[in-house]
Specification:
Elements: E1 2-6, E2 10-14, H1 20-28, E3 36-39, H2 50-58, H3 77-91, E4 95-98, H4 106-119, E5 122-127, H5 136-139, E6 144-145, H6 148-156, H7 174-177, H8 191-197, H9 205-208, H10 212-216, H11 229-236, H12 241-253, E7 274-277, E8 286-289, H13 295-307, H14 318-322, H15 325-332, H16 336-347
Parallel strand pairs: 2-5, 3-4, 4-5
Antiparallel strand pairs: 1-2, 1-6, 7-8
Length: 348
């Protein structure tokens, strides 16, 4: 057995004899609560996003897929890997172990290596056949003979554990690189001019409302609405970060789906413990405590926002509310909590 290491936390372990002990060691390394997961690639599947789905399943996410299913958007390669990267960042994943890596096509190996570059997660590939079958991207690496003890050592190398939830850095933006400008510029109008101008349009959220952290310095947050454990468990298992995050907000705040359009990156505190919601005209904006079960969901939505290179001032949930509206409605209708809130609004 030989182990190959290259810089930036990638290890390829060659097990030409396909020793059951190596497979057992890799499977036993699966400890999501410690930031390490193991996947066995789905065999004989031609679906282009299958490997990303394997990562999502190992992270505890379940796809309600199918051509008309609520998670059909994740059938595409880029959205599926972006979702996997967001959940990895939000949950503090630091090590991914892949067994039977020799069964992966070159395309899927490329996908996996691209995901590792995006997330920075340590990657260990178990190559369980002859080294002669390795593709050029792996065959060009220098191999070092070792034994099972070195395999165990490679599996144990997890590196520093990131803080939970971990957020990718904000993309470059004038709002994050320059001093904050005044929220509104006062303009003096003569009475006649004011009459002609008419009522001023309501300012945008970024102009009129501070984010969660700034608001918390001025007011106390409202407690979250109770959500039954069955509903919170259902939400925690959803595969799309934006859908899971949006539905969790609807559940523990009782706000409307329309109000989610104004939720921004800065409306979620750095530890995902506080959330700022907005109302039309910003007359009834609120600050909420985020329940413990919902914090990883909001963290994943925020990580998705940043990994997609969206600007901090852009809406956090709008991509999910527009292209993923069908998925949002389908999942919402399965939750008693949200159905009760919707029915109560209808009666009101």
């Amino acid at each position: 057995m030989a182990v190959t290491r290259v810089p930036r936390r990638l290890a390829v372990v060659i097990d030409e004899q396909d020793d059951v002990a190596s497979t057992r060691a890799a499977l036993n390394a699966h400890q999501p609560e410690s930031g390490r997961i193991t996947i066995q690639p789905t065999p004989a599947s031609s679906h282009p996003a299958t490997l990303a789905h394997d990562v999502l399943y190992a992270l505890g996410k379940r796809l309600a897929s199918g051509p008309d299913g609520p998670d059909s958007r994740l059938d595409s390669v880029r959205p599926a890997w972006l979702a996997a990267a967001a959940w990895s960042a939000a949950t503090g994943l630091r090590h991914l172990v892949v067994t039977r890596a020799h069964l992966l096509t070159t395309t899927r190996l490329d996908q996996l290596l691209a995901w590792r570059e995006k997330t920075g997660v340590q990657l260990t590939l178990l190559w369980q056949t002859t080294a002669r079958r390795m593709p050029p991207m792996l065959a060009c690496l220098e191999h070092h003979l070792t034994g099972l003890d070195q395999l165990h050592a490679a599996l144990a190398e997890t590196g520093p554990r990131p803080a939970r939830p971990f957020f990718p850095p904000l993309p470059a933006s004038p709002e994050t690189s320059a001093p904050t400008p005044p929220l509104l510029h006062a303009v003096q109008l003569l009475p006649a001019q004011a009459a002609q101008a008419g009522p001023a349009p309501p300012p945008r959220p970024g102009q009129s409302c501070t984010g969660a952290a700034a608001t918390a310095q001025q007011e106390s947050p409202l407690p979250a609405l109770p959500v039954p454990p069955a509903d919170s468990a259902y939400l925690a298992a959803l595969a799309h970060p934006l859908v899971a995050g949006a539905l969790s907000v609807l559940a523990f705040t009782g706000t409307t789906q329309i109000a989610l359009r104004d939720t921004r990156d800065i409306d979620v505190s750095s530890d995902a413990a506080l959330l700022r919601t907005h109302s039309p005209g910003h007359r009834r904006c609120r600050l909420y405590e985020v329940p413990t079960w919902a914090r990883p969901l909001l963290a994943a939505a925020r990580a998705h926002h940043r990994l997609a290179d969206r600007r901090p001032e852009e809406s956090l949930f709008t991509p999910g509310l527009s292209s993923g509206a069908k998925a949002l409605r389908a999942h919402r209708d399965r939750l008693p909590t949200l159905c009760e809130v919707r029915d109560a609004r209808g009666r009101g």
